[in-house]
């Protein structure tokens, strides 16, 4: 079973690219972020025509997350617990039943947090402070669980082509990185780093200053696996080539293969 995550940067602008990728790679589950669409306007039909069940948690103009699954989606929940007043559409969970049992996945679009000094950075940290206990609760269920999406966190200097350029950015602040480490230290395995320790392993290249052409990238899209999911891992990868397609997102898909 292949489970993928991708910040598509707008389903309206990127639908042809997303459909081309789905036809090429055929993931069993795809978790999409930044769909930038309310639920009723999400273009479900083209995805359903490819055999996917679709669930969304959308918002007009920005944010928004979606689940695509070839298997029936079960127990779908929207919104990250912990703040009933948070109106930003950044989290959706669902589950599928496989031969190895139920596999649950949380799709997240973690706040960017920039600019520093604004209310956006405290919101990012507060959102992470809600995510950690939620993830801990899921781990206590002792099921195969994946927490995947655009984390907007550069975990380590190796995860940026020029780490010094990010010292004043919310993605690389000690507070952001410490919370990401607290999350992984609960008992998750970070899929990409379980498969490779190679430098220049990136998932995002800015549209500006020729970042893609210079391979001036960062790694901010992550897949975390519970111990039960880690036992099933058979491979993972980053579909870097998609960044070179016409009208690309600035992110690329990241995926993990499970023997499920």
Please describe the topology of this protein:
Elements lengths: L1 E6 L3 H15 L3 E5 L10 H6 L3 E5 L7 E5 L4 E5 L12 E8 L2 E9 L10 H21 L3 E7 L23 H11 L4 E2 H5 L25 E5 L1 H4 L2 E6 L15 E5 L2
Parallel strand pairs: 1-2, 7-8
Antiparallel strand pairs: 1-12, 2-4, 3-4, 5-6, 6-7, 8-10, 9-10, 11-12
Helix pairs in contact: 3-4
What does this protein structure show overall?
The protein starts with a strand and ends with a strand. The relative contact order is 0.17. Helix content is 24%, strand content 26%. It has helices at residues 11-25, 44-49, 120-140, 174-184, 191-195, 227-230; strands at 2-7, 29-33, 53-57, 65-69, 74-78, 91-98, 101-109, 144-150, 189-190, 221-225, 233-238, 254-258. With 260 residues, it is α+β, with helices and mostly antiparallel strands. Strand 3 and strand 4 (65-69) form a beta hairpin. It is globular, with a radius of gyration of 17 Å. Helix 3 packs parallel to helix 4. The strands form two sheets. Strands 3-4-2-1-12-11 form a six-stranded mixed sheet. Strands 5-6-7-8-10-9 form a six-stranded mixed sheet.
Please give the count of helices.
6
Beta-strand content estimate: 25-35%
Low-confidence stretches: none
Oligomer: single chain
**What's the total count of β strands?**
12
* Cα gyration radius (Å): 17 Å
User: Roughly how much helix do the residues carry, as a percent range?
Assistant: 10-25%
Q: What is the CA–CA distance across the termini? A: 6 Å
Global outline: globular
Keywords:
single chain; about 260 residues; alpha+beta; 6-stranded mixed beta sheet; globular
């Amino acid at each position: 079973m292949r489970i993928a995550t991708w910040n598509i940067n707008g389903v309206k602008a990127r639908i042809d690219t997303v459909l081309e990728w789905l036809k090429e790679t055929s993931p069993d589950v795809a978790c999409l972020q930044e769909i930038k669409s309310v639920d009723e306007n999400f273009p479900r039909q083209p995805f359903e025509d490819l055999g996917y069940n679709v669930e969304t948690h959308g918002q007009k103009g920005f944010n928004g997350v979606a689940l695509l699954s070839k298997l029936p989606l079960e127990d779908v929940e929207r919104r990250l617990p912990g703040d009933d007043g948070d109106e930003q559409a950044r989290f959706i969970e669902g589950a599928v039943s496989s031969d190895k049992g139920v596999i649950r996945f949380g799709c997240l679009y973690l706040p960017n947090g920039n600019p520093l000094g604004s209310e956006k950075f405290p919101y990012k940290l507060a959102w992470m402070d809600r995510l950690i206990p939620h993830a801990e609760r899921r781990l206590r269920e002792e099921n195969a669980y994946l927490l995947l999406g655009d984390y907007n966190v550069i975990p380590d200097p190796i995860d940026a082509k020029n780490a010094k350029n990010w010292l004043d950015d919310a993605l690389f602040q000690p507070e952001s990185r410490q919370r990401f480490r607290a999350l992984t230290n609960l008992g998750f395995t970070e899929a990409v780093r379980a498969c490779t320790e190679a430098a220049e392993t990136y998932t995002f290249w800015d549209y500006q200053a020729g970042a893609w052409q210079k391979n001036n990238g960062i790694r901010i899209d992550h897949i975390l696996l519970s111990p039960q999911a880690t036992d099933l891992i058979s491979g993972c990868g980053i579909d870097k080539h998609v960044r070179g397609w016409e009208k690309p997102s600035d992110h690329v898909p990241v995926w993990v293969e499970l023997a499920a």
